[in-house]
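Review form for a predicted model. The reviewer records the input and the model, then writes brief findings.
Reviewer: anonymous (R2)
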Amino acid sequence: MPGLLAKIRTTLEMIKWEHSIFALPFALTAVLLAANGLPAWRTVVWILVAMVAARSCAMAFNRWADADLDAANPRTSNRAIPAGLLSRQFVLGFTLLMALIFVAASSQLNRLTLYLSPLVLAVLLSYSYMKRITRWSHLVLGLALGLAPSAAWIAVRGSLDARIIVLTAAVTLWAGGFDVLYACQDYEHDRAAGLHSLPRAIGIAGAFWAARLMHLAMLGLLVWFGLLFHFAALGWVGIGAVAALLAYEHSIVSPRDLRRLNAAFFTMNGVIATVFFAFVAADLWERT
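Model under review:
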């Protein structure tokens, strides 16, 4: 039992489970809007279980699929599988367990969430192979996070509203843009390993411009989203706060200085998602 607990602790560290917060606030935003307030707590609990399980499944599968690539990359060679802390078999077993939990949680929401759960898993797991075939793998990762608000809406309503797809598109560009920046760290490795990415295709400076354009488009989509859902003052303040935080993130990294990229990618992205949710929630509750 102590050995198993140690493996589970190492697995949670490997998948950075705490970073589930990236997409979670956007999903909760959709939950509040779909329910026009708070839905039943049972629904919220199963949505949380499904989201954490889905992300854990995707991250573990990525570490399993990329184990050999991680071992060859100095930046990732100390990850759990290359470092010998976990076996590939154990990580694959964990991946399958999380997939089963995700499907089980989906079945507790409604019939449509259950039917769509295999499709969601296909998108989440496919990202791990996209960088082997296309420079646009960043958008697949973005979509993996962007599905969260649409999935949460379906979980509450049992159907899809076209308006929530605008938020899905915004989150896709937000996450995809920062994955472009994050991939700049692996420019040399990707070239040597024959992997595809926007930094490898257009250079690091070009990748920074691509990420900026993605984030500007994301802000435009958030404005459209606010119009569709008739945001009042607090909702617009929230979008303004997201714009300010994005500008700050881009100000602390540059093509010549990637040292603060982890702070921008991990810390500030969680802040952005949480701030957006907080303002939209306050806006909704003020109007209801």
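Findings: The mean pLDDT is 90.
Further findings: Residues 112 and 252 are 43 Å apart (CA to CA).
Recommendation: see findings above.
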